[in-house]
Every structure is written in C-alpha cells, then in structure tokens.
Amino acid sequence: MNNKSSRGKTGITEKIFKKTIDEYDCEIESLKKRDDYSPVFDYFLNTIKISLFPENGRKNRVNPLAGILCVQAPPEILHALGVDSIKLCSGSIYAQRLSSDMPVLMCPVLKSLAGALRFHNSAAVSPDCFIIPTSCDWVVKLPEMLNQELPEVHFLELPHIKENEKSQSRWLEEIYGLKDRLETLSGKKLNKRNLRDSIRKFSDAWAEFNMLIEYRRKGILPNIWFTVIANSFLQDDIEKWTEHIDIVLRKYKQDKNESTDSRVFLAGSPVFFPNLKIPLLIEEAGMHIIADDICTCERIFPGAVCCDDMTIHGMLKALSERYHKACICPTFTDNERRVNNILNTAGTNEIKGVIFHVLKGCHPYDIESITIEKKLKERGFKFLRIETDYTKEDSRNILTRLEAFKTTL
Amino acid sequence: MGYNAGIDLGSTAVKVVIVENKEMIWRQARPTVPGQEALAMGMLEEGLKETRKKRSEIEKIAVTGYGKNLVKEAHTVIDELSANAKGAFLLSGGKARTVINIGGQDIKVMRFSPEGKLTDFKMNDKCAAGTGRFFEMAARILDVPVQDFGSLSEEAGEPANINSTCVVFAESEIVSLMAGGAETGQIIKGLHESVARRILSLTGSTSLEDDIYLDGGPANNSGLVSAIEDELFREVFVFPYCQFTVAYGAACSVLI
Amino acid sequence: MKFLIEIKKCFLSLLSHFFLTAVFLFQSVISTAELNLPDTDIQSNSYLYFQYDAKGKEADGSAYQVLKIRTNNTAKNLSEFDSIEAYCRKSSRPGKQDYMAYRVPVEKLNNEYYVKIKSGNYSIFDVYVSGNYKNNTYVAQTVFYLFGDGLKGSTGKPGLVKLPEYLPVFELTESPQNYWPQTGNEFRFLCRVPEGSGSIKQMIVIIDNKKVSRIFTDRNGKFEYIPAHDIKLNKGGTSSYKEIILLNSINRNGKNYTAAFNLLVHRSRTAFLNVKNGAVLFTVSIIFFTAIVLIKRRTFKYK
Amino acid sequence: MIGRIRIVTQHLMFIFLIYGGRAGIKLGHSLPCFACPYVSGCSGHCYLMALQGKWGFEFAVADLFSYEGFRVLLYFAIFIFLIILLSKFWCGWICPFGTFQDWLAILRKKTGIRESEFSWKTRDGLKKVKYVLLAFLIIIPVLITYAGLHSDFSLPFCQICPAKPIMPLFTGNVDHFALDYTNVITGTFSALSIIIAAAIIVGSFFKDRFFCLFCPMLPLIQLFKKISLLRFEKEADLCSGCGNCHRMCPVDIRKVSDERSNKAVMDEDCILCMKCQESCPEDNVLSLKFLKYRIFLTSRKYFIRNNRS
Known about the structure:
The complex is a heterotetramer of chains A (409), B (256), C (303) and D (309). With 409 residues, chain A is an alpha/beta fold. Chain A is built from 14 helices and eight strands.
C-alpha cells in the first residue's frame, strides 16, 4: 500500500489505518443493527468510507481528485471541470493517533483529519489537490503542522466580513483562483455549458436533499440516517448521490407524520462519521433532532444558486456569493443570521430546545455558543451546551445532562 | 397511604431512602461497589426490616443515578438532575431556586421554577475537579478523614495557596505544601477555596438566584460551605440530610 | 465609393452643425428678400385687416382669441367707417365651408376696435369684418383654430345669418398642416367675389405693411402661396408667429371692394430637420459609447 | 413562472400602448410609465409630458382655482390613482420603454456578453441623477412662464428623453433622429437627444434596465409608496442573506438582500419585476401584497420548481 514513507513508520500507520477501518466498520455494523435500518442506506454507508480509500473514489476513472474541506468552496466548479472530490472531514478517533505530535488542544476534527491525511499520504493514490477555505485557525495551520506532507494545498482565503463590497469581490477573486487552479489540474477549460450543467446538477441534488430535510422535520426520517446521508455528500459522484436520495425519499414517501415530542435543534460543531456520539446520545436520551445547522449535516451545501447573467463570470459570481454571503459558519464577524435561522427553524417546527455541540478546541463555535445561548434564552428556548470531543468516556455524563435537559423541555 | 423507596446509585455512594407521604422515614448510604444494584436492594430490605414494613407495602421504587438502568425492580427511572431538583425543592419547603450539588464525580448547578420544575442547569465535564473524589484524594494524602475537614479548616488561620483543582496536579501541590511545613488545616482551607472557585467558574456568581442550597455528600463539610459562601458573597443553606436529597427527590417524584 | 463620399459629406455637415446654428443667430436676412414691385392701385388703396392680439384660456377651460381691427392707413380712422360688422363661421376643416355665419359683436376700447372669439371646444373659425368708407367696402378675414377644452362645449347655436353677398372672401382650400400653419407650407386660396364682378387674377402679399410680392392665379383659378422661412421666427420660440396679409381688390359698379386675408404662420417644424446628419450622429454616438463601455467597464481582474 | 407571465404582460402592454390608439383607445395623459406621446397612434401618454407642459406646474400656479386648475389637479389625481393602484408595476410590467430595454438585455444574454457592474459607490451616486432630472423638468417650465426663459426650452425632459427618438421607431417614424437646425437651442437639444438615445441603447445593452437608474418617474412613484395599495415587504429575520435577490435584480438594489431589520425594502429604484421573489430560496421572506391579499410570497418550493432543470 505504501511506497512513499519509511518502513518503520509504515508499520504503525498501517496498524492505525486498520484500526480506523475497524472503527468505521464497527459503526456501520451498529447502524445496520438499528430497527430503522433499511438497505436503501447501504449506498451511503459504503460511500462514507471512500474518504479512507481515496483511490476507490476514482476507480476506473481518469479524473483528477481533489480533497475539499469546509462548506465555502463551491464543488460545482470541481464538477464542471471533471475533478472528482472527496470531503476531507474526519470523525475517527483512531486517526487522531497519527497526529499525536500536534497541539493537545487541537480541534478533534482537524486532529483526526491530520491523521487521516497521513493515511492518504502513504496511500497508493492520494488526492492531487486539497482545497481548503481558511475558515479557522486550525485549518490555516494544518499544512504547516503536517510538515509539508501534503502534496498540494490550495487555500481559499475566506473574507470574514460578508456584507461589504471589498470582501465579496475578494472572495470572487478566490473563486477565480480556484477555477484557474482546477483548470491546470484537470487540463480542461471551464466553459459556459459545463459550468451551467454542473450548477443545475447541484441544484437538483439540493432539491432532493431539501426534501430529505423536510422528511426529517416531519419526523419521518430518523436523524441518524439523515446525518449519514449528509456526511456522504461529495464522497461520490453527485448524480449517484442524488439518485440514491431519491430512492430513500421514495421509501419514506408513504410514511405519515410522526408526532414526535421532545423535538430539539442540534447546533454547533461538525458531526462527522464515525463520530455520531452526540446524535446517538440525544436519541438515547429520548429526544429527536428535527433540525440542525451543522456544516456536515443540513448545511452541507447551500444549493439554490441562481443567476441571470449566464456567462462564466456571472455564474462564478453567483457561486461565490451563494457560498459566502449566506454561510453561517461562526468564523464570520457578524453572524446574526445564524441565531435567526435557529429561532425560525425552531419556531416553525415546534422545537423547544437547542443543544449546542462544541468540540473541544473548536474555537469559533465555542465563542459563539455564549452569544447564542443568551439570545436563545431571551426568546424562551431551552439551551444546553455540550462540550466534548471524540472520546466516549464522558458519554454517561453527557447522557445525564441530556436526560435532565429532556425534562426541562 | 403507601410507602415509596428512592434509590440513588451514585458514583461514590449508593443512597436508599424510604418515604412516607413526603416524609423521609429511613435513609442509608454505602460506598459504591461492583454489583451496586444488589447492594441497593439489600439496603432496601434492611430499611424495610428496620422500619418494620413489608416489601409489598412499598408502592413504587424510583431509581436514579449513574446506575439507574441497572435496577430491574425499579418502577420509575428518573434522571439525577430532576430528582435532585425535586428533592431540594421539597426539602426547602418550596423556597429553593438554586441548588448546587457536589457529587462524587460531578458538580451540578440547578435552577428551578417556583413550581419546583427544573428549568436550567450546568454540569461539569468529565473532569472530576472539585468533586467528592477530590476530597477523598486529599484525605488520603493528608491522612485525615474527610469528616474532619470542616472542623480542621475552621480552626486554621491563613489558607494555603492551592492553584490547581485538578485531582492530579493538586496532589503534587499538597505534597509539596506538606513538605514546606504548612499545617494540615491551612491546606484543607486552601482546598476548600479552590473547590469553591471551581464551582464559581461553573456557575458565574451573578447568574444564581437566591436562595442557594447545597447538597451532596461534601456539603456536610462546613469548611467548604463557608468557602463557597465567601466566594459567592451570599448565604448558602445546607439540607440536614444533604447526601440523600437525590434519592428523596426520586422517591417523591413518584408521588406527584 | 459613392456611399463613402455620402457618409463623409454627412459627417462633415454634422461637424459643422454647431457652427451653422451659431451662424443662424447672426444672419439677419437669408430668404425673405423684399420684392420692390412698383406700387399699384391696389396697394395705394387702404384696406382693413385683422391683427392677432391676446390669446389664451379662460378659467372655465374655453379658449379665446382677440383680433384687432386695423387699417393700414393711419389717416383713416376706423370711427369714420360706417357699419363695421363682424361675422364668424365655425367649420370643421378647411375647404368645407358654407356661407352661413353668425354675427359677432365689434367692441371698442380706447379707440381700438376688436372682436373676441371664444370656444369651449376644438374648432376652426373663419372671421370676417366688413366696413364701408365712402364708396369703398373693406373686408378683413382670417382663419384660426381654438383649442378650447372647457366645461361648456359651445354656447348654444347662434343665430345664423347669410354672409352679405357683396363680400369678397378668401377660401383656404388646401393647407398641409391642419392647425399649425408654418413657413414653407403650401397654401391654396380661392377668391370668391360677388356675383358679376368678374374674377380676381392677382393678389398682393403684404408683410409688415410692406408689399412683398404679387401672386397670380393658376389654371384652376387658385392662388398658391408658400410663405418663406424667416430667421426671426426660427430664433423665436415655438409659439412665435408672423402675420402675412394677402390683399385683393375689385371694382364693381364704381365701388371698390378690398379684401385682406390675415395668414398667421409659425416657423417651420420640419424644414430644418436633418435625419441624415442625425443618423450619423447616432451611429457615431453608438460607436463611441460602445467603445467607452468596452474600455472602461469594470473588468474583474484576477492574476 | 412569474417571469413568463411578466414577459407576456409586457408584450401585450407594449402593443396596447404603442398601437392601441389606432383602435381608438385613449388612456389619457397621466400614465406613470414611458408611453411616449410622440408615438403617433399611441393609446396613452406619459405623465411627465403633462407635468412639464400643459397640465403641470406652469398652469397650476396661475389658475389653481379655475377649471383649468381643476384639470391640472385632475390629471395629477389620475396619475396618483394609477400609482396607488399599481405602484411600480407600471415600471416592470407595463412601461414600453422598459420592455424595449429588456429586449436589449435579452439580446445581450443571447450573445453571451456579460452584464456590466457598477461599484457600490457608483451605483449609489447614480441614484441622485433622477432627482436632478426631476428638478429640471419641474423648474424649467416655471422659468419659461415666469422668468422669460426661451420657449424652445419647453418640455425640456421630453426633448432629451431617449424614448422620444426610440419609441416612434416602432411606428416607422424616424423623424426624432433628426438634427434640428432651426436654432441653437433646438439644435443642441436634438443633438443631445440623439446622443442620449445612443448612450441609453448602449447602456441598456450592457446593463439591465440602464435607463431606469435615471428615470425621474421613479421618485414620483416613490412619493406615493406609503399610500399605495401594493406592498412589498421583507421579513428580515427569515432572510439568510444569500444575495440571490440582489444579483437577480435588474436595477441592483442591495437593500433587498442586506436589510436586516426594516420591513420596507421597496427601494425608489424598484421596478417590481419580482425577480427577487422568484430567486429567494427561503420561505416567507419577501411578500407582495395588494391590500391584505397576498399576491406572491417567496417559498422554497416555488424556488425549486422554478429552477428545476
């Protein structure tokens, strides 16, 4: 498997890699044992593993592969240029072992990712390019911490102010930069037709995904499967993903609304497979996650790109605005709309409580939890902040809190 | 009128109470051991014997605490925080709005509505700093029983300066303080202050509503109570049987 | 090649546009050179004519026009005339006329005689005034439009009378602009004279009390008159006008009949339009602005 | 969906207003849109002409309490009534000159040329131009009447309005493209008119609704926004700020996307084309109401249906 790094290191890497695969398989197995499991989810459970085997992502394909982190980089451009993508998030505890040389207080997502990238680095095939918007400090310093082990990182400098002309055109510049980078990577030229088609495909995917969100809102689709489907976004071909969502939708079409009580909103740091600790504990405590604003779940992609000016510039501008202006990642200076989103979603879906998930070391979310707590409590919502990481030792403690939280609803 | 039993399977102690119409007629606490559900049931049998009641007279058994799902005989399983709120509210005669529970592994700060319903709470993470465990550790190093902590700290003068609330770090700090010739009482006083600070950091002194009640095993420690009072700038009340509030609350939750 | 030359010509004339318009200001006489025809008996005669005076709108929305009655000969006072009578005919358009008319009062103020025509709706008026002086009969005539748009459409049906037969009248048979007579327009007249007076073969054009030219009838017995463009009118505003008096005279039974028709003309609206130059200017502007947009428009720079 | 209804309406109104007079339709002189009176056989006139001339301030001051004054007020009242009834619908759905500009924009899209953009500062600066024009078209007629300004300055706005040369083209009349050598004033005005027409044609080709950025009718309509039966409102709390609406807006109104608290987002430049509503992917954010009846409310469902490939 490895021809790049030295032998001794390989041994450990390989062992940890196997452990990680086991971790994924274990989680998949336990999900398959659930009562609400259905074979329609198999596709998503399988694709979710692709990030471990980037080479699987382009089996029988000649397309270049790009790893993509965070939700601000428009995958439409990748797709238009025929670049395959994998989502770089990682929820593996074992992968963190490979990054134990990094700061202790590092955000678990990035720590896990750093480990996983070391698998990639030693894998036969690794992504040709990493596309990383500078959404937080950990992300910015990641390649440095990885000691240039990454082949090629393309940063997109994310302007932290949204509603200002300078930053918008700054971000557009970054999108143009991404386009140029991907054009050299793929050897193709972005043209009107392929970009338009790509935008349409993602719009369609968003439309289907949106139905999925609706089903979850109604309590038809269990949250955990929604999370799995959302997590598998961009791991495989977008059209296939859309098709399989359609299959899921058809399965649940006949189901009637379940009037669920203890409906909660899950906000905060990313939840990524196989770290489904928080959603599973919430479920165990007898609550139902009806909505979330997590960037690996509901917010996985903004979709809904539309533009009047169908030139390349027009479409790139539309993409740049759509992925920047409405993004409610806490990295932005003014994020009032994030609170508004929670308030509105909770208000229209009979949600009384908001659980705010903070991954230890995930500073933007940590910082924002304070203001959000204040604002939500003002409006009479119950709020529970849970700060945790990928380890499972605190499960009992969290469960105690969740159970008590349920009684307060 | 029947009787109810409340069992609190805590991390350091198992507490069992028998309640007759909101009246705690029997209580007992034992350290947690493996097989705590059997221990708890044994304790209940003991209690029945002492109060000369029959098992059939117990209408309901309510269980709470970390091990709450282990007891098969349980009629009701209730979470610790709700049980605690209930218990504290009833014991304070409906006066309490805020309760600080210092347990074996965690510190919980609860606030409840005038009707005694839990509205909001804070709880520490997996770190056991400032909990019962912390005092147990200190007792072991200082070779003084935990029960004496209160009186010792009251007699002491200036508190020793202890910066760390972490069980691991505080241990080495205590050792070095002892080596430096500090009196045991001073060290204990210092420990109390550091724990009080830890509690404060969890709650934020301003967000607490009067009246503040303290419960959980360590609340028996008068030194700790006064340290907390100093830190919060407010009077803090302690329930007479502060260790049993949760078990009592669980038992009472069945009543209403 | 020819096309190119044409374009070039257009372009040059376009460039000279502002120059030319400036020159207009200083030109005093271009087209209306006075014709110094020898005086004839007609001109030496006195005549009665209308002079357009105040025009406006009443508060009720009806329009009015005041016409002063003047004589060319200042020596002859109008008060010496007997039986000054004014008639008015309303007709829908030129050429469709009957001889029924109604009397309008001749008013007198400060030794000035005038008639005031009022209309509550949109109408054409033929106004006549006749006066006798010794052996001579003088007729003044004019045609104008009133754009009344008032509450009262018309003030009932006036008692119609037949125009006195002896009146020689001008009949404007063809006028290209139906309400806005302009210089450069072609006006055709028919002169009707009282029975047995023979026919009128010529008339005289008088502008500013000076004889300008003499017009003869054509084969159909019509007079054709094209008022020349006038730089003064051009420089004036849209509503500036000039009055041209057309005069004819006949002798019948030893009596002189003199008729003066007052033709009010505005400056020409179309004579000075140049679509070709406009089109060139337009094309040049289009090219110019397109170039500006293409050069100056914000290009998104990324490099 | 709405876009299609709008295009059909625009074309019907175009035909109706340009050729309707030939079928004997007379809508009067108070239309709040660019139905140019210079088009022979048009069925109604732009109010700006009445305002500058016969039924405008010039006469209103003199004879306000007469029948003539009454007519001035009547035409003004009809104008207000039409605005109250349809507000900016006149601009986005009826105005034939607007439709003409939309054709140019369609032409641009067909040729694949990108739309021009203004910087925010420039765009905000342009807003003032229409007030300057409005001031001129009110002041000059008054100056003619009371200060002896040359009467060739009459109808100053019509004389430079790009609709005057362009709209009569649809009835085969090219006269207004002529240079008028009558005198310096007419010459200058006619040259200006041709140059402005060219500028607006080029402008509207490269930028949606370019003339609407300067149109003095807009502030007049805006005056009656408060009493108009049509309401365009934004529920700012529900807005995700995605910017679709701003991008789709032909007149680049930023407020509709960036407004965070105020309900009233119908900017003076708004032409009620409803493109922002069509492009809004969030539920219930932008609503258009007639009295209390809702004409259109944004919804995600509509957005998805409208954008399905």
